[in-house]
Design a protein that fits this description.
It is a single chain. The protein is of the alpha/beta class and 455 residues long. It has three domains: 6-74 and 106-185 and 287-363, FAD/NAD(P)-binding domain, CATH 3.50.50; 186-284, no CATH class; 373-450, no CATH class. It is 42% helix and 24% strand. The chain has 17 helices and 19 strands. The protein has helices at 14-25, 39-42, 56-63, 68-73, 107-120, 169-177, 252-262, 264-269, 273-279, 304-307, 316-334, 338-370, 374-389, 397-402, 408-425, 431-434, 438-450; strands at 6-10, 29-33, 51-54, 76-78, 80-84, 90-94, 102-106, 124-127, 130-136, 141-146, 152-156, 159-162, 182-197, 211-216, 221-226, 232-239, 283-291, 294-295, 299-301. The strands form four sheets. It has a seven-stranded mixed beta sheet. A six-stranded mixed beta sheet has the order 8-2-1-12-19-18, sandwiched between helices. Helix 3 runs parallel beside helix 11 (316-334) and helix 7 (252-262) packs across helix 9 (273-279). It is globular. Bound molecules: flavin-adenine dinucleotide. Residues 10-16, 33-36, 48-49, 52-53, 131-132, 163-165, 169, 192, 235, 303-305, 311, 314-318, 320 line the site of flavin-adenine dinucleotide.
Length: 455
């Protein structure tokens, strides 16, 4: 069948490995080239978060390949946030409705499973230790260097799909070899460092298992996600410069003093936390936006290669899995017309990738500063009530992003309208003590109509 393509896929990360399934299922022959060694043999070499939050869009992408249930079983549902205040107070905020959860999954475990599936499929091959260092975008020719032997190989195919992450080689080729390529790369002033809260002596969880834990401290914060072995992987989001910062904390004594003051329960649960802090690297947080993502019928960028975002909405991988899902639909729609397929893919995804990129940066401020704020907590309670009474008409921005497949752009726009609504709601006299009353409910209904959430 001449609609079958020979496809070179760069990168066997989360998105590349899943995408290969979508392509092979439609009969295409996929050759994946991955610069790292096979993590199933060499072990998973971190560098990025050990676990990730997988939510509705990610599951949707896995479901189409029959993988949803299997991955759900090895994930830990997190039904809400547990906020750890500096004075030791702890609050719980549900993320959505009772049964709605985001799932903590192992990055390495998920990636390995996706690679195993690729191995089982005769239409997919993976070559490891092959780093793409150049792409001829006009002719779909890729150049690879073997990381062990340093040998160079040139591969020509019908189409190149590039899921090689935030520092994509194919994107660089588009940038340097085509005219009017738009590109922006923005780093946050904060970076991150991973720390661990180990399991208890009998493998038990030392904090609430089914929650994402947050220690918000304004200019910085710590979060923790549960792992299957009873431990939690914590991520400290912290300024690179200033006081306190990665730069200002230099000695073990300074680190111990800082962590004990700011996160006392973490230090109490984690005897190795100071040495871990000293040993673990600092990661940086980048947003990448670019355009175009595609070149004629020859090249397309996917996942972080076209839209790397900061992790504060837990959506980077989810957005990448949604790319795969949409790409699958468009393959069915356009058949052999890859120019139309790639063009429509870019059309529908770029606007949504930009939206989640902006929401992710904004959510950093929400997590760091607002989750502990009384007005924010009140808003969450009122939003839950509105959602319960008007499930079709009022769905919070967080739920639209995490528990629906409504376009990210729609969630962003709804978020603006919801903010405007809540400016007025929170200005209602005495709302703090009266928010659950019938009288307030009547006022809320009027405002919902004014802001066109209700007819
Ligand atoms: C601290 C942190 C926490 C995060 N938490 C979440 C979360 O909770 N939920 C969520 O959805 N997302 C999260 N993300 C985002 C998520 O990690 C990324 O969006 C996701 O990994 C993107 O997948 P990808 O396959 O596009 O890119 P990557 O995962 O970067 O994979 C790219 C692959 O390409 C390979 N490669 C790179 N260059 C080349 C080359 N030149 N030649 C050949 N191969 C190459 C790499 O080795 C890698 O295997 C987080 C990110 C960070 C940094």
């Amino acid at each position: 069948m001449d609609s079958q393509k020979n496809i070179t896929l760069i990168g066997a990360g989360l998105v590349g490995s899943l995408l290969s399934q979508y392509l092979a299922k439609r009969g295409h022959k996929v050759s994946i080239f991955e610069k790292r060694s096979d993590m199933r043999k060499a072990g998973y070499v971190g560098g990025r978060s050990i676990n990730l939050a997988l939510s509705h869009r990610g599951f949707n992408g896995l479901r189409a390949m029959g993988l949803e249930e299997e991955i759900r079983k090895v994930g830990i549902p997190m039904y809400g946030r547990v906020i750890h205040q500096i004075n030791g107070d702890v609050q719980y905020q549900a993320y959505g409705k009772e049964d709605e959860a985001i799932y903590s999954v192992s990055r390495g475990g998920l990636n390995k499973r996706l690679m195993e599936l690729a191995d089982e499929n005769p239409n997919i091959s993976i070559q490891f230790d092959e780093r793409c260092f150049d792409v001829d975008v006009q002719n779909a020719i890729c150049h690879f260097e073997n990381m062990q032997t340093k040998e160079h190989t040139t591969v020509k195919s019908d189409v190149v799909l590039s899921a090689d992450g935030a520092f994509s080689a194919a994107r660089l080729a588009l940038q340097t070899k085509t005219d009017r390529f738009e590109y922006s790369q923005h780093y946050l002033d904060q970076g991150y460092k991973e720390l661990t809260i180990p399991a208890g002596p009998n493998g038990e969880f030392l904090l609430e298992k089914n929650a994402l834990h947050i220690w918000p401290r304004n200019q910085y914060m710590l979060i923790a996600l549960p792992n299957l072995d009873g431990s939690f992987t914590c991520t400290l989001f912290f300024p690179f410069e200033g006081n306190p910062s990665f730069t200002s904390l230099q000695t073990e004594a300074q680190v111990r003093e800082f962590l004990t003051r700011e996160f006392p329960n973490v230090v109490a649960l984690s005897p190795e936390v100071v040495s871990e802090y000293m040993a673990n690297p600092n990661g940086s947080l980048v947003t990448v936006k670019c355009f175009p993502w595609v070149h004629k019928d020859k090249l397309g960028l996917m996942g972080d290669a076209s839209h790397a975002i900061v992790p504060f909405f837990g959506q980077g991988m989810n957005a990448g899995f949604e790319d795969c899902f949409e790409f699958g639909n468009l393959m069915d729609k356009h058949g052999d017309n890859w120019e139309a397929l790639l063009a429509e893919f870019q059309d529908i995804r770029k606007i949504n990738a930009d939206a989640i990129a902006d929401m992710a940066v904004e959510n950093f401020i929400e997590m760091r500063d607002k989750v502990a704020d009384q007005k924010f907590l009140l808003r969450k309670k009122i939003e839950a009530k509105l959602n319960k009474h008007f499930p079709e008409n009022y769905v919070s921005k967080y739920s639209l992003v995490s528990f629906s497949t409504k376009p990210y752009r729609y969630a962003l726009e709804m978020g603006f309208r919801q903010d405007a609504l809540f400016e007025k709601v929170l200005a209602i006299q005495g709302i703090e003590n009266n928010w659950d009353s019938d009288e307030t409910f009547a006022k809320l209904e009027v405002l919902l109509k004014e802001f066109q959430f209700l007819n």
